[in-house]
Amino acid sequence: xxxxxxxxxxxxATCGLVYELIAGTLASYLLGDSVTQFSTVIxxxxxxxxxxxxxxxYVTKNLLGFFITVEILVGLVGGCSAAVLFVLFEHVYSFRxxxxxxxxxxxxxxxxxIPLLLQILxxxxxxxxxVSKVFSFDYIGALFASxxxxxxxxxxxxxxxxxxxFGILNTLVxxxxxxxxxxEVPARRLHKLSAxxxxxxxxxxxxxxxxxxxxxxxxxxQGNIIYARSSPYQRIVLTRQAEDVRLYLNGNLQFSSVDExxxxxxxxxxxxxxxxxxxxxxxxxxxxxxxxxxxxxxPSVQSVTLVDLDPAMxxxxxxxxxxxxxxxxxxxxxxxxxxxxxxxxxxxELQAKNSRPRFDxxxxxxxxxxxxxxGKLYSITFFRLLxxxxxQNSIAVVQSTSPLVARKSFWCVNKTLEAAGFFTAPYHAxxxxxxxxxxxxxxxxxxxxxxxxxxxxRYLSVETADEMFHFPMDMARVETKIQRLDxxxxxxxxxxxxxxxxxx
Length: 504
Description:
Strand order of the largest sheet: 7-6-5-8-9-11-10
Radius of gyration: 27 Å
Structural class: alpha/beta
Number of domains: 3
Strand content: 5-15%
CATH class of the largest domain: Alpha Beta
CATH topology of the largest domain: Rossmann fold
CATH superfamily of the largest domain: Vaccinia Virus protein VP39
Oligomer: single chain
Largest sheet: 7 strands, mixed
Number of helices: 17
Mean pLDDT: 89
CATH architecture of the largest domain: 3-Layer(aba) Sandwich
Number of strands: 11
């Protein structure tokens, strides 16, 4: 019986860490700023576990019955946590209060588990064996969960289904104890009924988890959801309303097919048209192939290297016929080489090579700097890495969020590029889905505007470009800090400015 209870330690340790990771990941998806969300969720969870461990001092009778009750409750609350948070995200006054409330309840319950098991096993094992074995299984379970979560659970099951699965495992631990030590469990029938009722509810949740997720997302997004998938890196959602197809990553709009041409023409052509000849192009981000579509309008382009972290994005936009029509099959071009990699690490590896490629044009089409993992790609360190794959005639451009809504954020990008040794040329364009949107051109020598642009463009012309490089007073330059890896000032600017805009 003791060996099976030790296996239970492994299971409950795995379950406990998975609930913590689900809460942190879901908070970063919905609230942004992954470092803050994970830090506060982990802190709250560990504090709650401490409360639970302290409270076990008052549990002196019916240890097995209490342990079974705890396992059923952990299974129910932890298993349903992701589904509840997703469904109620748009419908509660304070989502953070709900989030930390659920994390606290789970943490307190998990805090009960190991101290209770130690008391249950103290008469069945020698003290030194008891402590070493229980904590060994506990730590091994934590390691197993930390590997399983990003490699298997998020990409293949998603957060909601993973929550239900591990709630089921917690409930099975309760049933295992009920059947193993049936003679020592008071009110055994009541415990058994509670466990089976919880198990059935969690099984139903597991089976219908996609429906639950779809229902929660239906209330969040405009239009009908036509595609939804959680990759190891982000939640990808496509919606359609009439002719408008929209892409959302972690709930943030990336483009609307109605007006994305404005954004992508403004991003690509001021760089490409300013170069006498552009044979080698680097695109960082842009896994939807829309920036690439604009790049391939230049016959002089011989090769394009696209570096996008998430293979789920490049696979989706290179296989779906509707999306292929939108990007004009650009991701299937024989000129293209795709690297699904972290652009920061990819550039560092290139820098370490003796013969690294030089690119004529670099298009940086990344998500907004809403969290620290993306923020490093707007840092002075990253921009210096860019310089190592440019020559004196190369030109780069960085999408730089809204200079109207996030004025400090925009000018922080500009100042960081200047600090990295570039001449900069900031500009903006009006995209109806986003409002005023900003870009910064960076080059080793002063930028010269092109005298003409390719034919067939729908938005950009010499006349509109002249207006783009002029900033009215409410978007004019302001003094900011430099975005560095150790302080990430840009992330704080971005979070502060956009949160005010979203509130009002």
